[in-house]
Amino acid sequence: MNKVAGVSEPASELERLIAELSESGLLVFVFGVGWWTAHLTGVTAPVFRGPADRRWWHVELGDDAASWTMDVRVDQITGVRFKRGPYPFPSFRGREVLLVEFLGPGKENWLGCYVHDLYDSKRMRPEKLQAWQALRERYGNRDESTVDRGSLLPLAV
Fold it and tell me: Which helix (H) or strand (E) is 39 found in, with range?
């Protein structure tokens, strides 16, 4: 247990995935619903708080002069998707994105974690693709998982 009351190390498979992503290097976390988003770029040190049935992922960046704080209800995440697909903006035709999506209730609300600096000119960086594929393999080796009490499980058939 961390020295701060109610704060702990990752306590589930889902929290370990979040921690591994947060500490892995330059990533872009995009969170929002529909018409608004906010970006959190770079390496973060996640903190997990609360009892098992009400867990929070807490991130603070900045200093006393200016900072950002993000809190995500981990216990409200209902699914995880590993996605490789076309880049969403037409200015980069032919490029792809690699991301991990965390789905909320109803699978409408989500937090996306995009691999940053994926391309070297017009070529995808092979080490970035390999790292993303290895992460996917460690967490079920499937495109989508459902989350049950912090465990990543295959979708029900």
Answer: strand 38-41
- Which two structure tokens, joined as six digits, stand for 47? 């903190």
3 state SS of 29: strand
Query: How far is residue 146's CA from residue 81's CA, in Å, rounded to a whole number?
Result: 9
Q: Quick: pLDDT tens for 13-59.
A: 999 999 898 887 777 777 766 556 666 676 777 889 888 889 998 88
32: Cα separation from own chain's centroid = 13
CA 102 to CA 118: how far, in whole Å?
20
Contact 57, 11 (CB under 8 A): no
Q: What is the pTM of this model?
A: 0.84
Q: Which residues contact 37 (CB under 8 A, 6 or more apart)?
A: 30, 31
